[in-house]
Amino acid sequence: MKVSDLRVALFSGNYNYVRDGANQALNRLVDYLLRQGAQVRVYSPTTDTPAFEPAGELVSLPSVPIPGRGEYQFSTGLGERIKTNLAEFDPHIVHLSSPDVSGHRALTWAREREKPVLASVHTRFETYPRYYGFGFIEPIFVALLRRFYQRCDAIVAPSPSMIAELREQGMHRDIGTWSRGVDRSIFTPAQRDLAWRRDLGIGDDEMAVGFLGRLVLEKGIDIFAETMVELRNRGVAHQVLVIGEGPAKAFFAEKVPEAKFVGFQKGSDLGRAVASMDVLLNPSVTETFGNVTLEAMACGVPVVAADATGASSLVDDGETGYLVPPREIAAYADRLTAYSEDPALRRSHGEAGARRADAFDWDTINAAVARTYLRLIEQRGDAAAASG
Questions:
Q1: What pTM did the predictor assign?
Q2: In angstroms, rounded to a whole number, what is the distance separating the alpha carbons of residues 50 and 108?
Q3: Which carries the bigger pLDDT value, residue 381 or residue 78?
Q4: How far apart are alpha carbons 56 and 84 in whole angstroms?
Q5: Helix (H) and strand (E) counts for the chain?
Q6: How far is residue 385 from each of residues 65, 116, 380, measured CA to CA in Å?
Q7: Tens of pLDDT along 277-287?
Q8: What are the contacts of 148-152 at 24+ separation with CB within 8 A?
Q9: Quick check: 283 and 315 in contact, CB under 8 A?
Q10: Which helix (H) or strand (E) holds 17?
Q11: Which has the higher per-residue pLDDT, 244 or 162?
């Protein structure tokens, strides 16, 4: 079988109604597969106000809003309509990108029909409860995820550090790499715009510490805010540039009143905003890869990040930025202070990051997923022939 012969059923908890790194990676994968001649049908909850036009054919799953987080939908299963649609499509492989209710039901559907299943890991769901006062249930989340992933034929994760974490948790034996790419037509040092900064009240010689991402607690905005307080207490001159929107914006604004909030940005406007930072502070530990880290590096911006799965495979400590123990406020402040005192060091680390980002080409990365599909289909066929 060739890639052009494939029929892929992709299940997503959120394919295009919120713009985030996971959704954009899935859409880029589907776009790549379609350009190779494959057929792809995407099953996901939908809304009347999607964040962007989806790649491929999108089939709406039954869903309800998540309480307290109305921007997200929670799938409630498949139902006969979706099962009939799946049977008509008759996919060669099922790709699950979220361990939600529909993901579990689709996995059962595939198992009953002896179709191979690939799961992709996009975020560290097991860490979310700790940000909402329920950290004690994290082991239960890990056990549930383990049960889900072990029923799949294989899983893919975006970084060596995340693969190591998954192996340590006993999630699966067959774990491959599906990395992430970056659009160098958008994210480039050439997008830096001093006039845009000046309009925000950021001087040419002032260090702008940036935050990039959804404004939600699980992105570590509490750590970011505490670090800014520490910088103020030390008398370290800096500005704060926040790119993104989200339900925790009011919390962020209260904790970091000096911040310049530029809201949600996309396309060249996003590239300009990122390139106009002087350093990205990314304290999140919930990412499996860290798309924002790679985007900043591509713009020539050094990164100070939590030494966790989202950044540890991207940031070369002391060369393209710094890795810091996740919740050590003083350590984050130390690294930012060093950058404030030595602009040449910032430039050197930023230039090294831009060179490192050159290796992340989307088509090369997505071709690896297609090869994994073909391998699992072949293995399933071999197993069926052997048992027959």
A1: 0.71
A2: 29
A3: 78
A4: 19
A5: 13, 15
A6: 44, 15, 9
A7: 999 999 988 77
A8: 148/99, 148/103, 148/104, 148/107, 148/119, 149/99, 149/119, 149/121, 151/107, 151/111, 151/117, 152/96, 152/107, 152/117, 152/118, 152/119
A9: no
A10: none
A11: 244
